[in-house]
Amino acid sequence: MSLAVRDLAVDIGGRRVVDGVSFDVDDSQRVGLIGESGSGKSLTALAVLGLLPDGARATGSIRWNDHELIGMPDRQLADIRGDEIGIVFQEPRTALNPIRTVGRQIAEAVRIHERISRAEARRRAIAEAERVHLPDPANIIDRYPHQLSGGQRQRVAIAMALACRPRLLIADEPTTALDVTIQAEILELLQSLVHDDGMSLVFITHDLAVLSQIATEGVVLEHGHVVEHASVHDLLTDPRSPITQGLLRDATATLWKPEGRA
């Protein structure tokens, strides 16, 4: 299965915030959408699954496995979300329900798309918690989001997104709110899971250093426009657009920051 985005535009309140974005994601390919805050990268990703905010309108074409997603009835889109395309958001605290145990939330992702008993759903929740390396899976699934650390909550969000083994994962800045050590662990986990399941990946970030660790191709956005589209290697070694050059300077400054400085 592959994703093909062509001339995507997103308008909110009469203002165009994404304009003419096009890219492909082939089977098992890892593509990054990168840009500064407000560049349109997250709106582009949300448009794929019909999750744009109220008042937003998408035009152009988004084809998944030769099916047009723009204009698809929400009932049909709901069948695709989670089952064929999974998504992990930047801040799991807002993505998780605070009054439900994390195990119930992982299991719910499975029960929406598969006819299984509650007992089987619990077994699946434990298995998925173990798969994302949560400690003591059989017990942690009975906890609530506020009882987990930020890194553990993000692992729960990843487990929910991947529970039905989707063919494409969209990860919307999933490490931004985490400290550097936990960030590295989450990136390593995502790499491993994407590789093991043979998934395609759309990874959204503002950090070229992070992108270089997980994607092979990058689409650089600025003010809703694609300003550069190249391999991550080329973005790192021969950036053409001023925005990419700025992202590279920021990444280099982060990588070479002297120890002990904030």
UniProtKB/TrEMBL annotation:
PANTHER family tied to this protein: DIPEPTIDE TRANSPORT ATP-BINDING PROTEIN DPPD, OLIGOPEPTIDE TRANSPORT ATP-BINDING PROTEIN APPD
Family named by the database record: Belongs to the ABC transporter superfamily.
ABC transporter domain residues: 3-248
Keyword terms: ATP-binding, Cell membrane, Membrane, Nucleotide-binding, Transport
Gene Ontology MF, one: ATP binding
Protein name according to UniProt: ABC transporter ATP-binding protein
Keyword Ribosomal protein: no
Subcellular location: Cell membrane
Pfam families, sorted: ABC_tran
Mode of membrane association: Peripheral membrane protein
GO CC annotation terms, alphabetical: plasma membrane
Top-level taxon in the UniProt lineage: Bacteria
Signal sequence, renumbered to the chain: none
